[in-house]
Predict the structure.
Amino acid sequence: MLRKTGEAVARVARKVNKTVASGSDTLDLAECKLVSFPIGIYKVLRNVIDQSHRIMLANNELKSLTSKFMTTFCQLRERRLEGNFLHRFPNEVSTLQHLRDFPEQLTTLPALETINLEENEIMDVPVEKLAAVSALRLGNLHFNPLNAEVRVIARHSSCLMSPEGAWALAR
């Protein structure tokens, strides 16, 4: 067990060092068996955080992301979180104002009541999946360049979307 933990830590360190050395805009920590986002990474990345636009955390064992994560990486345009055990996001998720992809992981949170992703760059939204979230009542995608297809799908589902991007679910 201790050996596996050491290998996982070494894998994360190699990936972080690679990002810092290359000046890449992508931090790839996918498949690192993370159960939480390592606090030490904030210090190592402090010189490249402003250039980081993508973070890959897919296929880990994350249950939640902290407020510090959201505020530190508020410039993110894309984050990959699939294959985790996420059950909540902090309120600071609203600080992510450069997202280009809808955080589809939100559709897997059964107690989610409200989504506010105003002023991002989101074009596509999984409307059918949103309609299936039983507790979801309100959403806000104002000031996003939503494509026409999303609006058509929304009109034909139980999701009532205004032209500006706000929605309510007809239950």
About this structure: DSSP finds five helices and seven strands in the chain. Helices lie at 2-22, 40-44, 67-72, 127-131, 148-155. The first strand starts at residue 26 and ends at 28.
